[in-house]
Design brief:
3 domains; 621 residues; nucleotide-binding; Asn_synthase; EC 6.3.5.4; 6-stranded antiparallel β-sheet; Rossmann fold
């Protein structure tokens, strides 16, 4: 979706709506709709991916003669129940988004509290001349906005559409560069681009007729009340919530598939989904040539147990340098997560088969699936030494030999007194010693995880999960899912992020979530009735992109050439010597080199209009 809202005090500018929609046509190849107010103070357009109500579900949805105009990117899963509640409304469609209109009549701006789904919404009201933008609770779908120099407001589902409007110019925000280096993504509400904001998850924006803009948080995850008091009751309750989320998210007028990776998250989703269908579920497993881990045999066990229509694809990640500029174009924002490429290749395969695919994203954040949620054993042993010895002798001496070793030793204390900072330190690519080696003088911002950790009233482990649900999940994993899936015109659905399940999972005491410090122990117990023992007892694998191997090959030389071009070094964010030192040790620094390369490609592609169809070689000169 895309639009222009012009306050009554501002002369209406000309936004290039066709260009805005063309920039996002991959998100909606099934049709385009536009609407313009008679006074040109509201213009909007929508590129549709038809999932529900194929016949009458086109957007924008215009009420009456334009009293209200609604657009919604994504899905409202509980629309059938909401339509029943709104009996008597003169429906124009049979789809999911229209329920917003009668709910807004009845509840005003609080209508979002009734929605279960993933969405970016735009509701225009003519008589007060008001625009309301709403982003779903967890930030599964994006909403970007910016002001023109005169004060009009432009919004879209992707940043590139704002630039295509002809009203917003791309200019890099150096503060956002510092945030990117610290996190591997830019925390909301900022973006890499000066003057371009993203609406944070669970927030709504209201633009009034006089140009005033208000942004309000309408939802923040809280530990649900009424959780059963025993472990078995908790297991059943969370399983029931996930099962109901799957029920809602299977709603579609086009075939639904599921990505079956061989892990617990996707396996449990497939098990629950397959039991609810009267036909075989389409499941897909992707195996990468040369990968160190092959989970396809585990995925096949699940597919066989539930009689799915299973497909195994073999893919190659060759010609990496040819993919990266195009990936930067799809992403809009820099993303240091090197799983971007394999996920894009996976979604491209799915796009040839289905329009909707269930995805296990969110399981690790709800059930503590990462090592950084637990203190490392070596850190526990180190903290057993007297503080005077650690701080006064060991760490200073270690710093003389290797500044990174001193930094790692010092971060151990944060697990107890700064859990948000601890999470950040175990995920950042550019801690202080690396920035010094790189010659980077940008400041180190306060970690986003630390800012959110203190907002949650509960156990430290639960507060850490809450911090990740507000940072790493929407800014990395969900951005990655949205861009890679929509690039292939596939709607990725994430049942683990049903807000009811999120709040229930946050209420679980750590001793039930991870007894004995075992990652995802509760989710394993939930999955035990459904999945084979071989999968339940398999170690967590995940997909590790072979970035060090990439950087030992031709990509490393190209990356060095791009990052040491005079135009690049002139920004002062790193030195040529720093880049060469990174490249000299790809085993330790390959991911860092990749992160800087994706930052530079984003700037070149979106900020300078570099071509994306000629590969990285063309940008290295």
């Amino acid at each position: 979706m895309a639009g222009l809202f012009v306050p009554r005090t501002v002369e209406p500018p000309n936004a290039d709506m066709p260009a805005m929609l063309a920039a996002m046509r991959h998100r909606g190849p099934d049709g385009v709709g536009k609407w313009t107010a008679p006074d040109r103070r509201y213009v909007c357009g929508f590129a549709r991916l038809a999932i529900i109500d194929l016949a009458t579900g086109d957007q924008p949805i215009v009420e009456g003669t334009g009293e209200r105009v609604l657009m919604g990117n994504g899905e409202i899963y509980n629309y059938l129940e909401l339509r029943d509640e709104c009996a008597g409304y003169p429906w124009r469609t049979h789809g999911d988004m229209e329920v917003v209109l009668p709910l807004a009549t009845r509840l005003g701006a609080d209508f979002a509290h009734r929605l279960n789904g993933m969405y970016g919404l735009a509701l225009y009201e003519r008589d007060p001349h008001r625009l309301t933008l709403v982003r779903d609770r967890l930030g599964i779908k994006p909403v970007y906005w910016a002001r023109t120099a005169a004060g009009a407001l432009v919004f879209a589902s992707e940043v590139k559409a704002l630039f295509a409007s002809g009203l917003i110019r791309p200019e890099v925000d150096e503060d956002a560069v510092a945030q990117y280096l610290a996190h591997g993504w830019v925390p909301a509400p900022a973006t890499l681009w000066k003057g371009v904001a993203k609406l944070p998850p669970g927030h709504r924006l209201t633009a009034e007729a006089d140009g005033t803009v208000h942004i309000q948080r309408y939802w923040m995850a809280q530990a649900a009340a009424g959780l059963p008091g025993d472990g078995e009751g908790v297991r059943r309750h969370l399983t029931d919530l996930l099962d109901d989320a799957v029920r809602l998210q299977l709603r579609s007028d086009v075939p639904v598939g599921a990505l079956l990776s061989g892990g617990i998250d996707s396996g449990l989703l497939v098990a629950l989904a397959a039991r609810r269908l009267d036909r075989p579920l389409n499941t897909y497993t992707v195996r990468f040539e040369g990968a160190m881990v092959d989970e396809s045999p585990l995925a096949a066990l699940v597919a066989q147990r539930y009689g799915t229509r299973h497909t195994l694809f073999d893919l190659s990640m060759a010609d990496i340098a040819d993919h990266l500029p195009r990936l930067a174009w799809f992403c809009d924002e820099p993303l240091a997560d090197a799983s971007l490429l394999p996920n894009q290749l996976i979604e491209a395969v799915l796009g040839q088969e289905v329009r909707v695919a269930l995805n296990g994203t969110g399981g690790d954040e709800l059930f503590a699936g990462y090592g950084r949620y637990f203190r490392l054993p070596v850190e526990s042993r180190y903290l057993g030494l007297p503080a005077w010895l650690r701080r006064g002798a060991i760490e200073p001496l270690a710093g003389l030999v290797d500044p990174m070793t001193r930094w790692r030793l010092a971060r151990a204390e944060k697990f107890a007194n700064d859990r948000g900072g601890y999470l950040h330190d175990h995920s950042t690519f550019f801690p202080t010693p690396i920035k010094a080696m790189l010659g980077c003088r940008l400041p180190s911002p306060v970690p986003a995880q630390a800012r959110h950790f203190g907002d949650f009233a509960g156990a430290a482990q639960s507060a850490g999960l809450y911090a990740e649900l507000n940072t790493y999940l929407p800014e990395d994993l969900l951005l990655l899912l949205d861009r890679t899936s929509m690039a292939a015109s596939v709607e990725g659905r994430v049942p683990f992020l049903d807000h009811r399940l999120v709040e229930a999972a946050l209420a679980v005491p750590p001793e039930l979530r991870t007894p004995g410090g075992r990652q995802k122990a509760l989710e394993r117990a939930m999955a035990a009735p459904f999945l084979p023992d071989e999968l339940l007892n398999a170690p967590k694998q995940g997909f590790a992109s072979p970035v060090p191997a990439w950087m030992r090959g031709p990509l490393g030389g190209l990356a060095e050439r791009v990052l040491t071009l005079p135009r690049c070094l002139a920004r002062g964010w790193w030195s040529a010597d720093g880049i060469r030192r990174l490249r000299a040790d790809p085993g330790r620094h390959g991911h860092r080199l990749y992160a800087l390369l994706m930052l530079e490609l984003t700037i070149r592609v979106h900020g300078e209009g570099a071509p994306t169809d000629q590969g990285l070689e063309a940008l290295a000169s």
